[in-house]
């Protein structure tokens, strides 16, 4: 392929052709040795001794110039023969065949193959090549190749040749010398009038064979026929002399005078073209001075519109000469012809002028369009290469000359553009600044090449021109322009490949003949496919389409090696490129891959586009790409492809969770210490559970990191998969990826509906105990390979990091503009910051869903119960029992059974206690109800065992509690005492729990209210025997030490109940009061209670809590005195309830229960009556005398006389356990009708010891008859203050008749 070097007009093309069965590697080895001679000194070329026309272009003696060579390995198209005169440098001037040989017998065959190859490449009437040789390199020859009698065009290089490179250089000089001689023969033919007529006959003339030329019309003699060798004409000096006299060079530059030239050339045609051809030959011969003179002469004569192309071509040749001279001189400091102009300005002006001339040529023949377009494109590319070489070399200098003269088979890249940072913006702008040539100038000049005239070029020329344009744009850093041109290159190459393969297929099919209905599929050639696909990927990459988002891997690759744990898929990424353009280039890429065909590439491109451009693709495009990829993968699999595409649809697995095990199969881990007996369960109740074996899922999840599963039992995992596309996505295989203990699971296939999340259940069994780690899922699409998607558990730190990254990405979107490929989304993620972040994340071990596999567990079920339909109906306070029968349905025995209970009243009470918004008294009552009045209870039995297939029955006590609507009986069981080999951990054991829910209905049928404590009456109840008999429990002897307790019971139910109130007071005879309460009525229960007195130390204690809390903060703001009073009321109330027991029994039935009195409150008045007084006071009336005579009293009333002196005798007794000082206060009502002796207030009694009594008398006189009430109260004097401690009342009925 032509590399469009700037100095290509001065380079002699020598075609290197492999001959015979030489391998590509061997050919390139010897071709590289030949190509090492890219320039030869003119002084090193052996000049032939002839003085005829063949010596015209031979180098002069002591010449200092250079001869420039290029060695292409591909022949030019046959159409380029039309350029043989106007552009001789475009065609190979010599052909060198390269082959290997090991014996002399193969030499005739080699020369025959060489001649046949040259004849195929250059069929008659081709003017070139002018010289040809075949280099035979000896290899693996034991006897050696005999050079005797060999063909003159055959040159043998022995295997043991010492300096082969020097010999090759000498042979190249001889070949060039032969070419120069043929140049002289060619010019001699053109100098004749007939030759000049042929030269001016058309726009792109060519000379026929000498034997085919008619005789000259201007000469009397005709040209004798001359033999032609190798399909090229050869003219002898004697024959040419008959046509025209030889042109003699009168100057050292070999330029004849115009007068002599006119005598030899006919005047009918211009001789400007002849001078131009001579200048081209001198330029190829390295004689730049002679070439410059002949170019100057030609330009003066090429003024005709028909010679415009020749004029432009001459300008190109003249522009090449300064570069050759500068390179030969070895320095780059050339003085400018005009001050202020750059050294290359004149060269650029000539090339610009030539470009204009090419562009303005009026095409006269449609056959010439191809050559006009090609010459125009080459001229623009030559101008571009001039500026590009100077720009890339940082200015005018030796590096720029070397770039412009580089003759290699591949484009030469200067060192300034071959390092890693060559395409960075800073490097490109630095080159522009140092060279003085902006990149935009080169780009705008290069854009002149692209146009409709490219359509007139042949396929090879078009590809060559477009390739040169694309490579220049790439070096300039204009990647989008490069991709635009490369898309056209792809179209040209693909047309050539497809057409060539179709022709081969038709040729091969014709060889089969007609075979009926037999289908024949020929093997498809994949040569060149890889290069085409690389070009496609490069174009798409520049436009922002990442075709390598889906990789092609081997079928046998490990799915774990392609695992993906990226959890940043939802992080915002700035879009790059034009979506419409990207979708268009994707369509082209898929079409190109289909046309090659490369089915794996088709699937890769289609699926990569679906993954990266999904948000821009229309539904129709998505369906098309998906169906195309599916067909391609099926075809590739059917044709035995050993590779496949990896899974493509992003992250299909959203989440994985262990499906909750059925409650009856859920294992629960318990410490072995839970088996030890406990003194009290109160703290467990108040903290949220009635028993350590009561299962609470929320508490278990909070305290237990790993889920517990049982060995050998079926596990189910809930997998959420997603499909963001508009089509139903098929998954060929979906299975769990696990590590740790072996896990047996079968993959499933499914179809995920379009644009939806789909829930899938994957099941399996853990085969051994240990830790089971769920890494993620293995997903396989149809025709693809499995891929592991890892789903680590997101920690709080990781969630915070991702949230910060998302916010940072949204914040930075649009704030920064990246240059070049850094703007690609997959390049932005590879920034140093992101790489450091990823390395820090990779240093942390990810955590996965982990399950702890415990040994096999027994299984229990409830066989039967005594509860009907799971409903329990109780009266308030009723006590009953239920029986439950359990059956072991497993193959393991059960040696541990423990019952635990829960009901609907526990949780609200626990919540109220946790909120701590209640008073101290309410807190105590709530705790008391939780601990002492549970709904369910049982008598623990640790010796319960159930063999496999056996049953056991347990009894549970029930208590009716108002507000309870439901309850649950939990039976925890386990197989604890296993063989030592079966248990790995001795510190824990595992239980299962079987729950039996109950619907509880509690009827409130009796309500207690109206609690009252009254003083015991001090008068007898009467003399009726029946009353005394019926009220035996109400009669006591010591009236002052007793009080009456009364409570009202209301029956709100429809059945009568017998209610009993028992006195169980310590050191007091047992007593009971029974009453039958009819439906809808209220009855009062009354029973005497003996007063009691609590010590000061007892009543000063704070109100206790039944939990282990150190203190309870009272929400009410009470003074110290009020708190003391509250404590006193609390303790007397507790002591009161200890003395009484209230029960009920259904009238005529068997149901019974307790009636709670704890809802009643104790008032301060009741407390005063209930509490035993410190001082006991007895009042009596006596008449004066010695001894005093008591006054008559009946029914507790005294009947003193009127207007007589009587004494009120007051007896004070110390009832406490300490010595106290007492005083008395006496009050008589009405006082105005009574006279008394002394004072009635603060009557001193004195100090009384424990149980000591003392009497005080007060003289009074009733002045009228009537009812009088005398009240005496004692007070204790303590620390100067007094407080009431006891009182007594006496009623006196004064009658005048007494």
TrEMBL record:
Places the protein is found: Golgi apparatus
The Trs120/TRAPPC9 TPR region domain, residue ranges: 374-639
Bias kind Polar residues: ranges: 228-239
Entries under Pfam families matching the protein: Ig_TRAPPC9-Trs120_1st, Ig_TRAPPC9-Trs120_2nd, Ig_TRAPPC9-Trs120_3rd, Ig_TRAPPC9-Trs120_4th, TPR_TRAPPC9-Trs120, TRAPPC9-Trs120
Cellular component, GO annotation: trans-Golgi network
Keywords per UniProt: Golgi apparatus
Domain Trs120/TRAPPC9 first Ig-like: 653-856
Region (Disordered): 215-247
Domain Trs120/TRAPPC9 fourth Ig-like: 1199-1278
Domain Trs120/TRAPPC9 third Ig-like: 1024-1171
Sequence ranges assigned to domain Trs120/TRAPPC9 N-terminal in this UniProt record: 9-328
Name assigned to this protein: TRAPP II complex
């Amino acid at each position: 392929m032509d590399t469009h070097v700037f100095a290509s007009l001065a380079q002699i093309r020598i075609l290197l052709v492999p001959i015979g069965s030489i391998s590509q590697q061997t050919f390139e080895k010897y071709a590289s040795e030949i190509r090492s001679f890219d320039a030869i000194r003119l002084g090193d070329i052996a000049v032939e001794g002839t003085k005829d026309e063949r010596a015209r272009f031979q180098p002069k003696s002591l010449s200092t110039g250079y001869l420039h060579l290029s060695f292409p390995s591909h022949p030019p198209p046959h159409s380029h023969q039309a350029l043989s005169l106007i552009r001789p440098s475009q065609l190979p001037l010599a052909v060198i065949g390269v082959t290997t040989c090991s014996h002399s017998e193969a030499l005739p065959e080699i020369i025959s193959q060489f001649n046949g190859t040259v004849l195929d490449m250059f069929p008659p009437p081709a003017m070139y090549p002018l010289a040809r040789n075949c280099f035979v390199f000896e290899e693996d020859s034991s006897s050696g190749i005999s050079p005797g009698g060999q063909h003159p065009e055959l040159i043998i290089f022995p295997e043991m040749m010492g300096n082969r490179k020097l010999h090759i250089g000498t042979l190249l000089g001889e070949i060039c010398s032969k070419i120069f001689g043929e140049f002289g023969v060619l010019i001699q033919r053109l100098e004749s009038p007939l030759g000049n007529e042929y030269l001016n006959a058309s726009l792109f003339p060519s000379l026929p064979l000498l034997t085919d030329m008619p005789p000259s019309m201007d000469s009397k003699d005709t040209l004798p026929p001359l033999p032609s060798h190798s399909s090229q004409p050869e003219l002898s000096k004697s024959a040419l002399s008959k046509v025209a006299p030889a042109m003699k060079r009168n100057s050292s530059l070999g330029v004849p005078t115009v007068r002599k030239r006119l005598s030899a050339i006919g005047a009918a045609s211009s001789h400007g073209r002849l001078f131009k051809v001579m200048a081209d030959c001198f330029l190829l011969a390295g004689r730049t001075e002679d070439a410059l003179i002949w170019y100057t002469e030609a330009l003066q004569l090429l003024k005709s519109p028909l010679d415009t192309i020749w004029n432009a071509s001459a300008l190109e040749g003249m522009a090449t000469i300064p570069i050759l001279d500068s390179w030969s001189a070895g320095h780059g400091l050339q003085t400018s012809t005009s001050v202020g102009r750059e050294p290359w300005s004149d060269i650029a002006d000539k090339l610009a002028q030539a470009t204009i001339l090419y562009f303005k040529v009026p095409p006269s023949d449609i056959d010439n369009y191809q050559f006009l377009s090609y010459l125009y494109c080459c001229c623009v590319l030559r101008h571009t290469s001039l500026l590009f070489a100077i720009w890339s070399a940082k200015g005018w200098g030796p590096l720029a000359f070397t770039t412009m003269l580089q003759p290699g088979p591949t484009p030469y890249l200067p060192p300034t553009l071959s390092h890693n940072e060559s395409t960075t913006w800073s490097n490109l702008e630095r080159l522009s600044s140092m060279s003085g040539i902006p990149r935009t100038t080169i780009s705008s000049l290069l854009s002149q090449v692209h146009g409709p005239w490219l359509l007139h070029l042949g396929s090879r020329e078009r590809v060559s021109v477009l390739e040169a344009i694309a490579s220049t744009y790439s070096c300039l850093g204009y990647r989008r322009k490069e991709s635009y041109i490369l898309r056209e290159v792809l179209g040209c190459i693909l047309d050539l490949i497809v057409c060539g393969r179709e022709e081969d297929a038709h040729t091969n099919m014709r060889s089969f003949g007609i075979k009926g209905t037999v289908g024949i599929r020929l093997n498809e050639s994949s040569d060149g496919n890889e290069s085409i696909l690389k070009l496609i990927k490069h174009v798409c990459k520049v436009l922002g389409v990442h075709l390598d988002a889906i990789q092609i891997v081997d079928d046998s690759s490990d799915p774990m090696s392609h695992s993906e744990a990226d959890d940043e898929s939802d992080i915002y990424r700035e879009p790059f490129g034009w979506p419409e353009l990207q979708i268009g280039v994707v369509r082209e890429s898929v079409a190109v891959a289909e046309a090659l065909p490369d089915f794996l590439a088709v699937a890769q491109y289609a699926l990569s586009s679906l993954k990266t451009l999904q948000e821009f693709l229309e539904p129709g495009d998505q369906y098309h790409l998906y169906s195309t990829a599916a067909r391609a993968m099926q075809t590739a699999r059917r044709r035995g492809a050993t590779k496949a595409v990896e899974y493509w649809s992003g992250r299909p697995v959203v989440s994985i969770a262990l499906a909750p095990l059925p409650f009856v199969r859920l294992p629960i881990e318990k410490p072995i210490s839970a088996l030890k007996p406990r003194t009290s369960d109160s703290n467990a109740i108040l903290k949220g559970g009635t028993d350590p074996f009561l299962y609470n899922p929320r508490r278990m999840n909070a305290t237990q990191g790993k889920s517990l599963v049982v060995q050998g039992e079926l596990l189910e995992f809930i997998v959420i998969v997603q499909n963001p596309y508009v089509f139903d996505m098929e998954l060929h295989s979906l299975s769990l990826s696990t590590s740790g203990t072996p896990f047996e699971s079968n993959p499933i296939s499914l179809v995920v509906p379009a644009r939806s999340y789909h829930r899938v259940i994957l099941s399996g069994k853990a085969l051994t105990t240990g830790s089971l780690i769920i890494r993620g899922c293995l997903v396989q699409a149809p025709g693809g390979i499995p891929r592991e998607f890892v789903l680590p558990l997101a920690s709080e730190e990781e969630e915070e990091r991702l949230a910060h990254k998302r916010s940072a990405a949204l914040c930075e979107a649009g704030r920064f503009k990246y240059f070049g490929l850094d703007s690609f989304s997959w390049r932005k993620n590879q920034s140093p910051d992101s790489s450091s972040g990823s390395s820090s994340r990779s240093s942390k071990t990810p955590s996965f869903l982990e399950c702890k596999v415990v040994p096999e567990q027994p299984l229990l079920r409830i066989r039967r119960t005594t509860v009907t339909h799971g409903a329990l109906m109780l009266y308030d306070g009723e006590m009953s029992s239920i029986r439950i029968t359990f059956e072991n349905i497993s193959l393991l025995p059960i040696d541990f059974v423990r019952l635990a209970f829960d009901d609907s009243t526990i949780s609200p009470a626990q919540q109220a206690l946790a909120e701590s918004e209640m008073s101290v008294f309410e807190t105590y009552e709530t705790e008391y109800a939780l601990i002492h009045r549970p709904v369910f209870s049982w008598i623990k039995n640790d010796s319960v065992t159930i063999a496999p297939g056996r049953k056991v029955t347990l009894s549970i006590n029930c208590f009716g509690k108002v507000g309870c609507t439901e309850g649950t009986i939990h039976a925890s069981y386990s197989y604890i005492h296993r063989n030592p080999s079966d248990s790995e951990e001795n510190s824990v054991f595992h239980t299962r729990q079987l729950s039996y829910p109950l619907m509880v209905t509690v009827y409130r049928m009796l309500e207690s209210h109206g609690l009252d404590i009254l003083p015991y009456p001090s008068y007898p109840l009467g003399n009726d025997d029946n009353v005394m008999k019926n009220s035996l429990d109400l009669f006591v002897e010591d009236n002052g030490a007793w009080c009456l307790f009364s409570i009202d019971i209301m029956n709100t139910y429809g059945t009568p109940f017998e209610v009993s109130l028992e006195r169980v007071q310590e050191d007091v005879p047992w007593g009971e009061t029974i009453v039958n309460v009819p439906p809808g009525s209220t009855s009062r229960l009354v029973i005497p209670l003996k007063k009691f007195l609590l010590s000061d130390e007892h009543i000063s204690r704070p109100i206790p809590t039944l939990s282990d809390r150190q203190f309870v903060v009272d929400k009410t703001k009470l003074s110290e005195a009020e708190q003391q009073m509250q404590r006193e009321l609390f303790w007397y109330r507790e002591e009161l309830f200890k003395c009484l027991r209230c029960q009920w029994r259904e009238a005529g039935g068997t149901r019974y229960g307790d009636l709670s009195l704890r809802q009643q409150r104790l008032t301060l008045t009741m407390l005063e009556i209930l509490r035993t007084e410190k001082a006991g006071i007895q009042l009596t009336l006596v008449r004066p005398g010695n001894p005093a005579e008591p006054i008559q009293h009946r029914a507790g009333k005294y009947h003193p006389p009127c207007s007589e002196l009587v004494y009120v005798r007051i007896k004070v007794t110390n009832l406490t356990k300490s010595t106290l000082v007492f005083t008395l206060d006496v009050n008589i009502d009405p006082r105005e009708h009574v006279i008394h002796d002394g004072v009635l207030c603060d009557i001193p009694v004195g100090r009384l010891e424990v149980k000591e009594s003392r009497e005080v008398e007060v003289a009074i006189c009733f002045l009228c008859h009537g009812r009088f009430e005398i009240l005496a109260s004692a007070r204790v004097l303590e620390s100067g203050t007094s407080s009431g401690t006891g009182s007594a009342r006496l009623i006196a009925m004064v009658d005048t008749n007494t």
